[in-house]
Amino acid sequence: MIGVLYAAGIYMILRRSLVKLILGIIILGNGANLLIFLLGRITKGNPPIIPGDLKVFAEAYADPIPQALILTAIVISFGLQSFAIILIKRVYKVVKTDDIDEMNAIDQDS
Amino acid sequence: MTGQLVIYPLLLQLLLSIILMFSWSRISWQRVITVVGGFINIAVSFWLFAFIWNEGTQTIQAGNWAAPFGITFVADSLSATLVLLTAISGLAVSVFSASSIVAARLKYGYFPIFHFLLLGLNGAFLTGDVFNLYVWFEIIIISSFVLITLGGEKAQLEGAVKYFTLNILASMIFLTAIAVLYGLTGSLNMADLSLKVAAIENRGLVEITGILFLIAFGIKAAVFPLYFWLPDSYHTPPSAVSAIFAGLLTKVGVYALIRFFTLIFVDNAFLQDTILVMAILTLISGGLGALVQNNLRKVFSYLIICHIGFMIIGLGLFTEMAIAGAIFYLIHDIVVKTNLFMVSGLVYRITGTSSIRSLGGLYAQYPLLSLLIAIPLFSLVGIPPLSGFWPKISLITAAFELENWWAIGAILFASLITMVIIAKVWANIVWKDKPELPERSNFRYYEKLTKEGKIQLVAPIIFLSLISLYIGFGAEQVQQLSSRVASELMDRQQYIDAVFKSSQTTKP
After folding, report:
1. A32 vs B146, B157, B176: nearest CB
2. Pairing of strands B58-61, B72-75
């Protein structure tokens, strides 16, 4: 499923439309988050709490670090995405197109 | 007191941007605060640098968690040098932007964001934790997005879309790489990773992770197949903004590459060869790209790419001398590139255009200024005794020792092409007769500025030129510094010890 998310995200980014670009970035971000989650070894029902009478973990436990990472990554990507949406709205107003191929004002020498 | 010294540059920048946020609408206050803050920042960074130089690598564990578990901040001499250089170019650019950026832009929080950018840069240089590095990268790119779009002109927005997409893509790849690396090792601390990655049996997976990191940082650093966003976006914002971007943003990518490929992914012939090939192609393609451009700032943008190649090639050769050359080049390049973009801003201010074809006659108008402009231009080429010359000697000697003729050829070719370009730029801007230009209404020409405004434009250029003259004439000291950095980088054990030792002493 992560593979599908990555593929879909990259496909969307490669499209010419700006809106699809943003969607692609969002999907790709979710794919990356899920990948962290998966590679952090999903363990069910074993919170990382050491019982009072032990010094180390007795059995496999759910690693809290990937969850912390994902939380951070989600917050960051949320910020970026909201910026991106404002940006494309602004670009659409100024340039009056959402087709990336038509944005070539910078290639003309001033 | 000195135990916390490592995070002082970070705290200072955070404090500055918060103070600036509070004086949101008082632009004249903001100007004063940011310049004074810039001086304090240099003092603090120099303090940190001197401390590291005398006492060796310093670390600090966030929340006093022992090393592989908490977030570590590490300042070795590479980080300290880069923090010092960030402070220097930060000060120069903040003085420059005080008069070169129009008030309408300043009103929308230019200075607070600028200090957030410096905060992110310092953080990225000082952190010793992979995920923390990702967070600092995000701080950098968010602030740079705001800086690049501030003003909202058409070309600027179009450049911003490309810049934005590629940088987000790089972040996603970086995140993916972190995920894979965490899955492999279960650790995020760089020193810990260095030990654990070496112990992994499945070398193929390590190589793939290395490649993922290489792509992520390669996009940031603008190396060969991944640089196309840079010349499309760097010339669009005001030149003060592109100065700080050119001087420091791509260098963060280079720093991350150097850090990762000397600490975590080492002794891997495949990765080193890949880096070497990328570096050679970067040198050639950046140089050729610059040759055909006609916009002054686009020429400089391509030159950034070309010169990133010099640093990466040092990393690819991977001997102590080559890395020393790369570090020396990094030091020289940060100062010179910041200066170059400020020069292009000044030229634009004087003539009202930045197209090379319609420039000219600068020498007849301002002979002293032209002399000043000559310093960054010719240090870039590396005409001895100016600063670009010395690192190239180290790099070429290192390549000779390895008998890597391709690398030598690429270095010489890129130097030659830079010289051709600079000669062309110099002849066109300074010596050519002044063509007739239509007078632009509503444009603040240099000669119409107040005396104070002129000083604000020229003083930072003089400041940075003096520093690059120092790098050129005091090359022995800088060489000493970069050899020391290189030997620290090659000796991984010392970094690892520094991280773990401090955690043992601080254990409750």
Report:
1. B176
2. antiparallel
Token pair listed for B450:
């107040």
- Closest chain A residue to the Cα of B176, Cα to Cα: A32
Average confidence (pLDDT) over B291-317: 85
What is the share, in percent, of chain A residues with pLDDT greater than 70? 68
**Closest Cα of chain B to A34: distance in Å?**
9
- Chain B within 8 Å of A88 (Cβ-Cβ)? yes
Is A53 domain-assigned? no
Alpha-carbon gap, residue B146 to A99, rounded angstroms: 22
| Residue numbers of the domain that contains B66 | 2-436+445-499
Q: With contact defined as beta carbons under 8 Å apart, do B337 and B304 qualify? A: yes
What is the model's pLDDT at position A106?
54
Do the domain assignments include residue B359? yes
pTM summary value: 0.88
Give dist(CA B410, CA B243) in Å, integer. 27
How many structural domains does chain B have? 1
Interface residue A34 vs chain B (CB under 8 A) = no
Q: How far is B321 from A5, CA to CA, in rounded Å? A: 44
Which residue did the predictor score with more confidence, B69 or B467? B467
**Domain containing residue A33: CATH number:** 1.10.287
Residue B505 inside a domain? The answer is no
SS (H, E, C) B83-145: HHHHHHHHHHHHHHHHHHCCHHHHHCCHHHHHHHHHHHHHHHHHECEHHHHHHHHHHHHHHHH
> Is residue A50 situated within a structural domain?
no
Contacts of B315 (CB under 8 A, 6+ apart): B257, B258, B261, B262, B275, B279, B322, B323, B326
Residues 6 or more apart whose Cβ sits within 8 Å of residue A52: none
* A28–chain B Cβ distance below 8 A for any pair: yes
Give the residue from B89, B9, B1, B28 showing the smallest Cα distance to B465. Answer: B89
Confidence of residue B136 (pLDDT cuts 50, 70, 90): very high
